[in-house]
Amino acid sequence: MSQEKGEFYSGSCACGACSIQIPKSAHIIMQAYCHCHSCRQFTQAPIHAVINVPTETIKVAKGQDNLASYAVVSTTRFFCKTCHSAVYHTVEEYPIAGTYPSLLKDFPFKPQAHVCYEETVLRVKDGLP
User: Fold this and answer.
1) First-to-last C-alpha distance (Å) of the chain
2) From CA 44, how far away is CA 48, in angstroms rounded?
3) How far is Cα 22 from Cα 10, in angstroms, rounded to an integer?
4) Listed residue (19, 14, 23, 17) closest to 107, CA to CA
5) Local structure of residue 58 (DSSP, 8 states)
6) Could you give the 3-state DSSP secondary structure of residue 66?
7) Average pLDDT per run of 10 along the chain, which is 129 residues long?
């Protein structure tokens, strides 16, 4: 990519071995809190923040060979082989990828909704759909 470093949201796993970039100009499909069982297992949290972007906009900037993955139903989850931090995921039936706003430095997370709320184990009353 020909964009300058400041034109990306960048983030890395906990140990820094893997990093990703998303252009600041990328279309953000959705910003939400996910409650699904699969995400709860992957993140080890009852709820997590997620942003979805077109798959081709997430670029592995460092550590491609240090990423491991596994598939659950139609989602492929990528994580660092060294520290096991979640890095991003892709969804087979849609051209979208998801990552975690807490991973991206200075990302202005503004959640729009709760997704998979029917699977929740933690009720949230924040006024979001």
Assistant:
1) 36
2) 9
3) 7
4) 23
5) -
6) helix
7) 71 97 96 89 88 96 97 92 96 92 94 88 87
Q: Phi first, then psi: give them for residue 54, nearest 5 degrees.
A: -60, 140
- Whose tokens are 């998979």? That residue is 116
105: which residues sit within 8 A by CB, 6+ positions away?
Answer: 9, 10, 11
Indicate the pTM of the whole model: 0.86
Looking up tokens 């709760």, which residue turns up?
A: 114
Question: Which two structure tokens, joined as six digits, stand for 97?
Answer: 């990828």
3-state DSSP assignment of residue 5: helix
Q: Which residue has the tokens 């400041």?
A: 6
Cβ atoms of residues 16 and 82 within 8 Å: no
Reported as type and span, the H/E element at residue 115 is strand 113-115
Rounded Cα distance, 95 and 84, in Å = 25
